[in-house]
Amino acid sequence: MYTQALNAPQSDERHLEDADKSARFEARVANEQRIEPNDWMPAAYRKTLTRQISQHAHSEIVGMLPEGNWITRAPTLRRKAALLAKVQDECGHGLYLYAAAETLGSSREELVDQLLGGKAKYSSIFNYPTLTWADIGAIGWLVDGAAIMNQIPLCRCSYGPYARAMIRVCKEESFHQRQGYEIMVTLSRGTDEQKAMAQDALNRWWWPCLMMFGPPDQQSQHGNQSTRWKIKRFSNDELRQKFVDATVPQARYLGLTMPDPELRFNDATQHWDFGAIDWQEFADVLAGFGPCNRDRMAARRKAHDDGAWVREAAQAYADKERARRAADNAVAA
Amino acid sequence: MSEPNSQLWEVFIRSRNGLAHKHAGSLHAADSTLALQAARDVYTRRGEGLSIWVVPSNAITASDPAEAGMMFEPAQSKIYRHPTFYDVPDEVGHM
Ligand SMILES: [Fe+2]
Ligand SMILES: [Fe+2]
């Protein structure tokens, strides 16, 4: 059940790490059993998941902004309808994920406040601008492609509600990547100018996409514990390598050049070796100094504030109806 | 600055091929009309359903997973409730 109401804190028991319960929990996770909202879980597991799932939700929501920028300027009705549907899906993903996070005991209002208050993070990738229409192609192909790499193993995450949300999300993501790649195919078969536009978008999005998988394994703060708890099934570097291996041939097909002079196929490992990632850039963007961090947060706050009257009106109407029904029942009784 | 928490609803959807409504997820809405509309938008964007139920989450009474052992024990020991418990001679064929 996705029910937060069932999750009323059982006194302070939740924080007392009972060795017995803890051992049973670890055994269940080791046996590939799913942990469900009302099951006992270590406070650190709850905290880790709340952070991860809510950050994931925030990313889906903020992720609507860079693409939303192009809805009104899509080149054809077909592209416009597809982009609109994709952005709606991302909103849906955000909602599934907030619901999954809520089962751990935080309300959605709290989680949204953390985002708007600048306390919660979201994926660094959405702090880059969408300068041309080709960026919409590059985002679908690369950003959604990277997201799929990340999300497929999460379908087997030990926490039931998160795993179930991910199954739904993954089913929807494949259209996102395909529509993006289709845009790239069209542009790269187009005029010289269109091809240059596609190449420019690839140049700008490639490295930030590699950063989406998070810091290298030796520096990752959350890696080990999450792997032990079966929240994470592959390390950041493993997923990044899978993404590179899958994407390089797709870029070749487009006739585009990866912006990495060190990229070459390694016959010994059967993987593509790639150049060094600028981790300072990643740290800067996460710390709030990416090209669009301020814009993104300002847009989210404005949307939240502008929507306040709608939420208030809906609640006032619901309260009035409830009072009316109660009065009717009192008369009838 | 936090707003009061709005009502949480559980969403059940009956799909084209399935007979029973199945739990699809949950959402927030001020009342049941808005909950139904939101459920349609959030959970049936690809024609997943022919019917939707929404139920206030706090109206659900759930069994306690910690008591699952005791709760379901009576069914554990009754293997004679399963068809494979009974021997039917091979000559009789499929039954
Ligand atoms: Fe998504
Ligand atoms: Fe997507």
From TrEMBL, chain A:
Keyword Endoplasmic reticulum: no
Start-end of Polar residues biased regions: 1-10
Top enzyme category: oxidoreductase
Location of the region described as Disordered in the Swiss-Prot/TrEMBL record: 1-20
EC number(s) recorded for this UniProt protein: 1.14.13.149
Cited PANTHER family: 1,2-PHENYLACETYL-COA EPOXIDASE, SUBUNIT A, PHENYLACETIC ACID DEGRADATION PROTEIN PAA
The name this protein goes by in its record: Ring-1,2-phenylacetyl-CoA epoxidase subunit PaaA
Organism field: Rhodopseudomonas rhenobacensis
Classification of source organism: Bacteria, Pseudomonadati, Pseudomonadota, Alphaproteobacteria, Hyphomicrobiales
UniProtKB/TrEMBL annotation, chain B:
Pfam family, one: PaaB
Gene3D superfamilies the UniProt entry points to: Phenylacetic acid degradation B
InterPro entries noted in UniProt: PaaB (IPR009359), PaaB_sf (IPR038693)
Name used for this protein in its record: Ring-1,2-phenylacetyl-CoA epoxidase subunit PaaB
Origin organism lineage: Bacteria, Pseudomonadati, Pseudomonadota, Alphaproteobacteria, Hyphomicrobiales
